[in-house]
Amino acid sequence: MDALHIVICDTNPAELERYTGLCRTICLRKQVTAAFATFSNSGELLFHMMDPSYSSMVNILVLEPFNGCEKVAESVRGFGYDGVILYHSRLADEQYFYQAFNAGAYNYVKKGSHDRFEVVFENALKAARDLERQYIALRFGEEYRQIDLRDIFYFETHMNHTICVWYIGGKFVFRANMSDLEGYLSKRSFVRVHHSFLVALGAIRKISSEQVTLFDGKVIPVSRRKYAAIKETLDKWSEI
């Protein structure tokens, strides 16, 4: 079972540590494998969440919407984040409930309500597991694309540390790390055939030790050392 990636943001260091520990305990009790990242300020969190290769791997964002973090949920949704957002705060101000609602937050739990937090967090774990992401959110500068994974043919490394995605409807250049992209998409029917190419299994018509041919006729080089693993992956995928 793949690990869930859980991000917790709270400007209060003591509470950040306390509730991260509580979330870890709940995950252990529920036998959920989880990787945690913590942030003590909204700027650092938003810097990471602007990167699609990072935000696309985040399953749950636990957020204290106060002390400079009021617009975080709205901002990450604007970046294309589609995972679970859980508000967790000592404040019960009406404006924060509206913010949670507008950002499509999963729930809002008042700090100190440990029993309720445990129930809500356990349910959030299940919701994150059940969430089937069918698209990827990509961004470059002020331009943003949300692309259905089923429409993508392949990704290709581009100049200046950027990647170009080719999909039904055209192409889009964005900034990301190919290895991070591979880590996320290898579980979603994509395979790295070459250091410069990540290809959708469903787009491959045939393969040889030197190249793959896509259904649209595009020919992409194959790394010889990857060929056996690619062929095995393609054969398993064809049996599904």
Explain this structure to me?
This protein has 240 residues and is an alpha/beta fold. The protein has 2 domains: 4-130, Rossmann fold (3-Layer(aba) Sandwich), CATH 3.40.50; 150-239, OB fold (Dihydrolipoamide Acetyltransferase, E2P), CATH 2.40.50.1020. Helix content is 35%, strand content 32%. The chain has 8 helices and 15 strands. It has a 5-stranded parallel β-sheet. A 5-stranded antiparallel β-sheet has the order 10-9-8-12-11. A 3-stranded antiparallel β-sheet has the order 13-14-15, with no helix packed on it. Strand 11 and strand 12 form a beta hairpin. Helix 1 crosses helix 6. The longest helix is centred in the first third of the chain and has 17 residues, at 13-29. It is elongated, with a radius of gyration of 20 Å. It starts with a strand and ends with a helix.
Describe the structure concisely for a colleague.
The chain has 240 residues and is an alpha/beta fold.
